[in-house]
Amino acid sequence: MSFNNDDSRRGFGNDRKRHFGRTARPTFDEAKFNREHPDEPERAPERREFSQERRGGIGSQAHLRRDRDDFANRPSRFDSDRPSFGDRPKRFEGERNFGERREFDKTRANQENFVPAVGDADAAPQVAVGGIKEVEELLNKNPLQVHRVLFMHKSGNPKLYELQKLAKRAHVHVQQVDSKILDSYARPNHGVVALMNEKELLNWMDVREEFFKARDTGEKKLIAVATNIEDPRNLGACIRSSLALGVDILLLPAKGMCGITPSVARTSAGALEKLRICRPDNLEGAIGELKMAGYQILGLDADTETNLAGFDFADHVVLAVGGEDVGLPPFIKKQCDAVLRIPMKPEAHSYNASVALSLGLYEYARLRIKA
Question: Of 76-90, 137-151, 276-290, which range is least confident?
């Protein structure tokens, strides 16, 4: 079967084709209307007059112009004493210069594997010096200002090996760490970083004769020893109490302690510069020499029955305190003439190291310092 598009065969002429779109509106034939309605001669003119009125009525352009003119003449709802936008006070005094904004530190952002240094997060970081030549010069000229030296673990560099032997001869504590830790302290570092104390400590060989002679002359001497203290604020408080309660010198071990960091200096409240601090090459040997010279060696520890209150102190005393968790090291305990216990409620675990030292020094000094 075949189909074609013959309009005549389908019966649709041009006049019968459907209009699927919008049909045209019929136009108004005025002459035809007058012929069909001769009794209503005024109908069409009325319609024309209405049309002219509509052209100037609601919705026309003239009407919109009238509304616009009336709106311009209306009294404003905001006519009051409110200041205009130009008269309002500025929130910021002066002019802001956006060109002086601080730029983002791109150099730090580009550092790969950046690891923050371990230490006192609330204080300025410990002074760190990186580089083989720089650290070698410090160990030769100012070894007692170097707290410890960090070396890259398994570096394979013979120069670093020789530098490590130099640090040990200077009795400076050394430590093997990952390269990321070194980079967090100083960059570039060539595999070695020296952490510095805020002040240069004294050499025991330079001051020991003073304390030996004091025993012969009868001059009273009080020596404090702080060991195993890792919190810089705790060490700073020990320094402050030692100065206040008449300590002649404070002895520190070569390792196992925090350094004299900026946090220590700040907590000491100026006492760091006034108190003499010594780091013997061999703390056990220094205490043994003082014991042989006639000094009374005392320790503070909770594991004892001897009470601090009312203890009979000698005129020449070495008073030692340990860290809160570790306590007195065995090499000091075995040399003590007495280990003293501070009265404490059984619910408490221990005293803070600086508090314990302060109580022990006060008990010694309360009859020797005039009020």
Answer: 76-90
